[in-house]
Amino acid sequence: MKITCIMILFWFLSMLLLSDKSQTSKTGIIYNFTEKNYSLIPADINEDVQVLDLSYNQITLNVTDIRALQMYFLLTELYLIQNNVIILLNDSFGNLSNLQILNICRNSIYIIQRDAFVGLSKLKQLYLCQNKILQLNADIFVPLKNLKLLNLQGNLISYLEVPLLFHLESIILYGNPWNCSCSLFNLQNWLNTSNVILENESITTCSFPDMLKCYSIKTVPYEAECHSKFPSPITEDLYIHFQSISNWTFNNSLNNLTINSEHESLGKSWAFLIGVVVTVLMTSLLIFIAIKCPILYNLLLSYNHHRLEEHEAETYEDGFTGNPSSLSHIPYTNSEDTTVVFEQLHSFVVDDDGFIEDKYIDTHELCEEN
């Protein structure tokens, strides 16, 4: 009997120990470093940490932070709320294969590179709320094969491709400036035909155009022509352009000093080139004016005469016909000179024989009279 009681007591104690171990394994090791003014993720934390809260710090999630995160491969929850994260680089969480909750809300994220979430095959909840995201490529969600909750609330998203998330259960999209044109039709169709729940549907409304502002993106009416169209290729081109700008910005952040110096020299060279071009053009213009102006002035002088007015013509004629004695005062009484002058003076006078030509006189009758 005593042996039986001892066995029962031993079994009970072992069960208690096992339950404590399971409880600790479920809870895991928790580190709370909120409001510590950290600029980097600490690298001296216990590698068995499972819940790491680094909210309300100055962390940027740069290359050094990513290297530190690689050591905590047992992490199941990571909180980076209200830090200084701007870019999510490729493989930012590559070694966190056990991560289930990732919260990066209230940062300034506007670039998410295509392979930022690679390795997060067990992630179930992703919070990207209240950032500055303009656009998202659907390919970035491909590694998230078990994602159930996606929170994109409070960003700058106006268009969203249908995310390739087959296990997604709920999505939060309110607080974005949605453009409810034909390009958003596929997203609406996916929300209505899949099992995904649109959280806060009543306040997830259109911002453009004005006539559709009162509609939810899930219920906005589309014209018949939109039902046969895919998202506008212009939007895709803009996204590609945005991605190229994003890549350039990322490279700029990594090589800040070099690129700044290059930009300064480039700016100075452009200013110098513009100055040279303007100087050459102005010099050419001055030379052209200097050469052409005398010619133009002489041309104007050569045409500086006008027809005589009627009273001027009479005065000019009277000066020669009314006072013939004036010819006697002309010096050099050479006969040849006098003849030339006479011919010049009377070159404008029409010969008059005293008869008036009448076009109505019949020449035949005139001949008979003669």
UniProtKB/TrEMBL annotation:
Keyword list, A-Z: Leucine-rich repeat, Membrane, Repeat, Signal, Transmembrane, Transmembrane helix
N-terminal signal peptide: 1-24
SUPFAM superfamilies assigned: L domain-like
UniProt-listed Pfam families: LRR19-TM, LRR_8
SMART domains: LRR_TYP, LRRCT
Residue stretches making up the LRRCT domain: 176-227
InterPro entries per record: Cys-rich_flank_reg_C (IPR000483), Leu-rich_rpt (IPR001611), Leu-rich_rpt_typical-subtyp (IPR003591), LRR_dom_sf (IPR032675)
Name recorded for this polypeptide: Leucine-rich repeat-containing protein 19
Keyword hit for Membrane: yes
TM ranges: 270-291
